[in-house]
Amino acid sequence: MRYNRFSKAMTYGLAGAMALGLGVGGTAFAGETEASAPASDVTLEFQQWWGVELPDGALDEICKGFTDKTGIKIETLSNPYADTKTQIAAGAAAGTMADVVGLDGSWVYDFAKQGAIANLSDLMKADSYDDSQLSDQIKYEGSTYMIPVVNFAYPLYYNKDILDKAGVTEVPSTWTEFLDACQKIKDNTDAAGYCIPLNTEAPNGIQNQFSSWVWASGGSLLKDGKPSLTDNETLTKVTELFKTMYDKGYLSSGVEAMKEQDMVNEFENGRLAFMVDGISHLTTITKESPDINFDYAKMPVMDGFTGKSGMDVANWGIGIAENCEHKTEAMQFVEYLMSPEINAKLAQLANAFPGNSNAKPDYSSNDERFQKAYEFFNEGYAINEFTGAPTAEDLMRSFNEQLVLFLDGDTSSSADALSAIQGEWQSVYGS
Amino acid sequence: MSNTRFKWDKKGRRRIGISYAYLAPTLILMVILLMVPIIMVIRYSFFDNVIVNKNPVFVGLQNYKTVLTDKKFWEAVGHTLYFVIVSIIAHMIIGMAFALVLNTRYLSSTTKGIFRVLFALPWMFTASVIAILWRMLLDPNGVLNFFIQALHLSKQQVLFLASRDVALRSVTLINIWSGYPFYMISILAGLQGVSTDIYEASALDGANSVQTFLHVTIPSIKPILISLIMLDFVWTLQQFALIWMTTGGGPVNATETVSTYIYKYAFTKYQYSIASTGAVILLIVCTIIGIFYVKRQIAEE
């Protein structure tokens, strides 16, 4: 019995000592690696959704170029957009985010506030990086947390056949012309004039199909970074423009339950004359509906507006995790992706516009319509006020709900609707 | 006597020890996957905000006060109750009707087999497939509207999911369609277990078909029916995917249920403590139903 107890005690003691030894040894080894590892021993995890959307192997090839140059290995973790969002959010909460992450502008505020992503202003400063070449930087409390790598513009798509059938000879350039065209389309065809997807599951119709009208006429939803929805002339007029379109039956029926994909389907099926949509859909629409005769146009502007138009953009942004142990190397990788040559290549492959203003992508092999959209993009300026906004999706959702109430006639005036949204937005920005 | 008892105790203790050793993997998994998350969510509900806040502050019952005084929460509760009660009643009626049809002796076994597969089909689809399918069917340019127009039932398109007056009824209809096969299969299994002797006896007593149904069939499968209602109540109460993928809780908040309310607080407002509070309230309701269910099961045994 005594022997048994003794042997048991010895076994537990030895096991404990071994575990302790392994732990201490492991820690010592880890510390040693971290302290003395040359750059070539560093492996950075790069989590994003871009690899899935780029041609097969294109992102890995770009990353390989960086490894060849610096010896720093890049492990790409590519998943579809929604999965990436979930994984990054989980990583942010647990402090296990991949070293370098692909970011959407609407996530930045929340991750930066949470302290999950690193301050890139500090890293750029430490590296003496010239940030004047960057087309944009997404900031939180005055510091950069995300750099847009490539931009996807949202031009106006129009179906030439529907316009011809309706007797619209010129693509409308002002709101009055646009409403006239919609009336002709309603009178002479079965198609709808315009569409704004207002399903509350994904309320980005407010950003892409509504606010794009405000930005195109030089308007803004914010003033000094704070909500400015009341006493905002352009916004009020855009809200009333949508009410006119809704009341006169120019919008697709059932917009309240439509998602962006439904709108694209309507366009592909020849049931929609105009839509504002991402340029990334160009290839898909051409491939899925080769019979659709469509082109791009500039957004119609408020009558009498002669200034520069803002063009709605979405971006593939990049950031560095706060928990990254190799921030200097991670910054090197970001700088590599933002270098004019690589950035141009990435933009060309992604059918997007470059995030480096010095990049000169060769779009000669791209669709002619794409080149046309690039011209529009260069003539105006890129804008998206939801990028970097706090709980951006929720802001869009509250706007969406109030807009539906206004369109349905439950809210008597645009001023009341905008005042209600201002109140909701104020509480978010105020907090 | 005492000696025997001692031996039994020792043996008994050993047997209990072995039993728990066998149960250990399951128990450990249950603790990790079930108990820990539940305890964490309950704990979160007592803090000002968690996950996104590195230094959460204990606020006691403040979050419960916030949720329980939120008008939108009570609207969501109202929608949830409508969704759950109508779904359960319709599931029961349709499930029972189809089970009776499939249990009849007037159809050949081949015909019954084909209809069994057809009727059970909605149960096989995942929520995302059901959502896509019904979104297409209920679209203003969809099949249903085509028939409505062709049969001159309405001059205008019916906005099944886009109208605030109709949307909740539409998502309830989708849920009814996707959930009745569970009732049908369970009731059918119950009906097949009812002895034919009872039916013969009731026929000899001169009972008509309605009397037989009310006084023989229903009492015979009553335990199954009660279990079905309780399970369906809990499942429908938690239904999220179907509503989220069809309407997202909208238009405005016409189809907002407690589950979409919780989701929005957690994943778009990042107010995890409020979301946890909503989840705890839902947990309490489900637990009460669960207790009744377990008690019922024990009583049956």
From TrEMBL, chain A:
Residues 1-30 form the signal peptide. Pfam families: SBP_bac_1 (PF01547). Gene3D superfamilies: Periplasmic binding protein-like II (3.40.190.10). It comes from the Bacteria. Keywords: Signal, Transport. SUPFAM superfamilies: Periplasmic binding protein-like II. InterPro entries: Bact_solute-bd_prot1 (IPR050490), SBP (IPR006059). Belongs to the bacterial solute-binding protein 1 family. This is Sugar ABC transporter substrate-binding protein. It comes from Porcincola intestinalis.
UniProtKB/TrEMBL annotation, chain B:
It is a multi-pass membrane protein. Its main location: membrane. Gene3D superfamilies: MetI-like. It is found in: Cell membrane. Residues 77-293 form the ABC transmembrane type-1 domain. It comes from the Bacteria. SUPFAM superfamilies: MetI-like. GO terms for biological process: transmembrane transport. GO terms for cellular component: plasma membrane. The keyword Lipid metabolism does not apply. This is Sugar ABC transporter permease.
